[in-house]
Amino acid sequence: MFTVLVVLFMVSGCTVLYRIFDPLNPTPSAESRTSATTVLLRWEYPEGSDVTFDVYLGTSSNTMALIARDLTDTFVTVSQLIPNTRYYWKVKVQNAFGQYRFSQVWSFDVIGGKRYALMIGVSDYDVASDLRWTVNDANDVQTCLEHLSGEFINRQLLTRVVEDDVVAFFEELEANFSDADTFLFYFAGHGSYDYAASESYLSFSNGSKITVSELRNLIARLDGTVLVVLDSCRSGGFTSLLSSREEVIADLEKYNRSFIEGLTQGTRSGQTYVLTAAKQTESSWEDATLQNGIFSFFFADGLGHTGLSAPLGAFNSTYDADVDSNKQITLDEVYDYTFANVNTYLKNIQQVQVFPVNSNYIVAEWE
Predict the structure, then answer these.
(1) Beta bridge partners of 51
(2) Which of 96, 236, 315, 321 would bridge 302 by S-S if both were Cys, CB 3.0 to 4.6 A apart?
(3) E strands along 3-144, which residues?
């Protein structure tokens, strides 16, 4: 049944009745799911009506952008949609007299193809201090992935890891990765800043490193969506929260800013998302009570792992970052949860960073 807007005009002394109907029966259907990254948006409207349509689309119901104007057909194709993202759309119908009305706001989820994850926890270093809890960090985040809907194809590189291990993984992944696939790159370990090269790098057991430009180039070979999560900093394990940070603040400012900017600059066919443990002038801390990096602990806590009430406990399916209780956690939700809890636990000395801000990219979902 169509709802109508009745518009009355006076023409040469006669009243002309003109009806504007609500667009109905959207395709994809409201709150449906699709794995396609190219989608036909279609709606129903009475035939023979002298109207045109504008279509709005976005990843938030408050920020939909005009993507098609003055259509006479009741459909439009959209492409390059991002996997694991909820999209909102609506249709504006208008007549020759400038009268118009909007449809309801509809939504659909683009789910990914295959999902891959590389979990790196480097604890054994030849030329730097060893780290105590990075393996726990990688294991806990992997446990979270194992409890989500769908299967992650996981690979772990733990304890003693060298650059060649990571490069070999990317070469293997590239051969199987499609534009519908998603990839999580998680790293817990040392990081630093190379003044000579003017860029940040991740440190590995034998002194080898992967610079931000090298990591960006590895990611650029993948056509799909990539989420980079980094729990690293320049100056060691930070198991003693009384250690001084002042000596390395200049390095850390360049290090953290370099990864956010370096990984997101340039163009690639897929979308890149980045979540890092600290802001530009801060360190990323470990904690003996939690037996984790503090960032990784609350990141995993938000995704369903145990929280502060039992910090050494098992996965408990609490999904605390799911603030709207819809069994989905967006990048913005996990950022907000991790940011707030790290900030509180460390009394504002470590603040999580995210790119892009206010993102509805779906990091986690479950039944």
Answers:
(1) 95
(2) 321
(3) 4-11, 14-21, 24-27, 32-34, 39-44, 51-58, 65-71, 75-78, 85-95, 100-102, 106-110, 115-122
